[in-house]
Amino acid sequence: QGPGRGLGAHKGRAVPLSSLATTEPPPPRHMAGMDELDRVLGGGLVPGSAVLVGGDPGIGKSTLLLQTIAKMAQSRKVLYVSGEESAQQVALRAQRLELPTEGVNLLAEIRMEAIQAALKQHQPEVVVIDSIQTMYSDQITSAPGSVSQVRECAAQFTRMAKQMGIAMIFVGHVTKDGAIAGPRVLEHMVDTVLYFEGERGHQFRILRAVKNRFGPSDEIGVFEMTGTGLAEVANPSALFLSERERPSPGSVVFAGIEGTRPLLVEIQALVAPSPPGSARRSVVGWDGGRLAMILAVLEARCGIPFGGLDVYLNVAGGLRISEPAADLAVAAALLSAREDAALPPETVVFGEISLSGALRPVSQTENRLKEARKLGFSRAIAPARSAESPEGDDGLRGFADLAAFVGETFGAG
Q: Which residues face 225 on adjacent strands?
């Protein structure tokens, strides 16, 4: 910088600092009217926040949000912006779902500037944009759905939500691998990212929070698809186990934790002889790499080979499990199927398996056991250090390593 040249009016100014010790009141909430959705959001919608809901086509995203908007319209000023259907189509769907339509304002528009004008004119409290990939701005020449259009429209709508105090919900399409289509920056712009999951052949739907600035992430809400839309499932453990009849080989009940919610789910395994050199490994609802690890540990540490055998693993009900605590339940299901020996019907299993064959303790043991007792299960198999935490529970059996569990339960290893 040469002599005589300064920053002038743009020179640095003292910026006031704030203390982290100051206590801020919790943000106000708009209750969505659906307990499962409010649970996932952390207690309701926060004014001035942006929520992104992603999911496969036809999974029920628009149905869920239309039901939510219809309920919130009883006490809030709401607007449903549809970029994929006409206002008549949305109205027909609301009639088919038997929803109260009083107070629900519809706008069939994909031009961002027109939607912004409508927001300024009507001043809604809650807005649904269905979907963000269909929106476009006159300021950008690329086609709707392109990276630049999606980024710009999301940024403008999010900024407007903050300025006007609107709780804004975006619907996002997903790619073949399940990620939200468009730039990854879209998930960084918003405050909350929810994924709506479920298998087409199952009636259950899982709403999962993967990011939440106003509540816990990894929280889930469970819904059931019915003829009149999505019904909330207050006790998902009972529902996931409702079709479980008498115990059979390869069937094990896993006591898991999804977010803050304990959840019991059935893990099913089938082991069958395969033609030489073409053993199959098929997994639904769990990680295939994790299954390969469990099979390797069973062979290396317990001396139980699975070579020459087809292995099929399924999480019943269409739920997808990512918790490492399911390792021991998966191993128990595989051994039960291989040995054709069913575990006692009143037993739940949980625990993480290390590569050494040791069983690692898992968190929230007491919550898992409470949920199991509530549904009539009186016995539990867990890692030894997890078994030490609850006091006075005679039905909890702890094992230090996988070989000890195999030897005592199946007489092998």
A: 230
